[in-house]
Write a structure and sequence with these properties.
The strands form three sheets. A six-stranded antiparallel sheet has the order 8-13-9-10-11-12. A five-stranded mixed sheet has the order 3-4-2-5-6, with helices on both faces. A two-stranded antiparallel ribbon has the order 1-7. By secondary structure, it is α+β, with helices and mostly antiparallel strands. It has a domain of about 90 residues: endopeptidase fold (from Nostoc punctiforme). The protein has seven helices and 13 strands.
Length: about 280
């Protein structure tokens, strides 16, 4: 047992050194904006995306796969401070034949007009992208000589993006493979992956997620809020509120992502509260 734990630590540490991943850069129990990331793949089958994510996880790299608007699956990973660092990591992985073509996703800024991931090709290019849940918006040239000023995106719009991203996973038999994943992490790993795709790094476990963010009364829930469940104030489950009294969650290991009603007796009895990160 001790040897296996030491082996996992060595693998994770070496992956951080070789590929400059952010896994030791910051403690988990905090919220932060993500930096540059790497996106790879355009898989027609979810199991192919899952296998790639699992291979990366085996190298100590936290990787997340998701469904795009065109119904293909992609994998995204990394939280790099600069574009140069992201490119270096991606090229090293490509040289090691762990990934093929890729492109660098820039950090999302609230004052940048969102572009859907589908607009970017799988090449080594610098593409500013929106979260995985964003939809494509046509960009038309201005009809006057006055400059067009993009207004910052309100918090509720960012929450809507998180909710739509979560809904894309519904029906997918989501799995968390790799040596870095611990038993019982499924529901919080799903939530973490959705927020990662939205450009926000949140803590790993549901208990840590419950400790950060803004407390939200149940009657004031908006899309994108996290809802927590448990017993005797001990958190054991988490999901993402998507509006209309419903939330999306990962019920158990290797099960399909599902939509559930907050008003179901099993959830009302165990409801502990909600948090907002936007």
């Amino acid at each position: 047992m001790a040897f296996r734990i030491l082996k996992k630590w060595i693998i994770g540490t070496m992956a951080c050194i070789l590929f400059a991943t952010p896994c030791v850069a910051k403690p988990d129990a905090e919220i932060s904006k993500l930096g540059y990331s790497v996106q790879v793949g355009a898989f027609a089958r979810v199991d192919n995306a899952e296998r790639l994510a699992s291979r990366l996880q085996d190298q100590g790299i936290e990787a997340y796969y998701f469904k795009k608007e065109n119904n293909v699956f992609a994998v995204r990973f990394g939280n790099y401070p600069t574009r140069k660092d992201a490119k270096k990591a991606a090229r090293q992985l490509a040289e090691a034949r762990l990934i093929d073509s890729y492109y660098i996703a820039s950090p999302l800024k609230k004052d940048i007009h969102p572009l859907a991931l589908e607009t970017a090709g799988p090449t080594d290019t610098d593409v500013t992208t929106a979260p995985a849940g964003a939809t494509a918006s046509p960009v038309n040239p201005p009809t006057s000589t006055k400059p067009v000023v993009q207004k910052p995106k309100p918090d509720n719009e960012m929450g809507e993006i998180a909710a739509r991203t979560a809904e894309r996973f519904v029906g997918i038999p989501y799995k968390w493979g790799g040596n870095t994943v611990v038993e019982g992490l499924d529901c919080s790993a799903f939530v973490k992956s959705v927020y990662y795709l939205c450009g926000i790094n949140i803590p790993r476990t549901s208990a840590e997620q419950f400790k950060v963010g803004r407390k939200v009364p149940q009657e004031e829930l908006i899309e994108g809020d996290l809802v927590f469940f448990g017993h005797n104030n001990q958190v054991s489950h988490v999901g993402i509120y998507v509006g209309r009294g419903k939330f999306v969650h990962a019920p158990k290991r290797n099960d399909e992502i599902k939509v559930a009603e907050l008003t179901r007796p099993g959830f009302t009895k165990k409801y502990l509260g909600a948090r907002r990160y936007f």
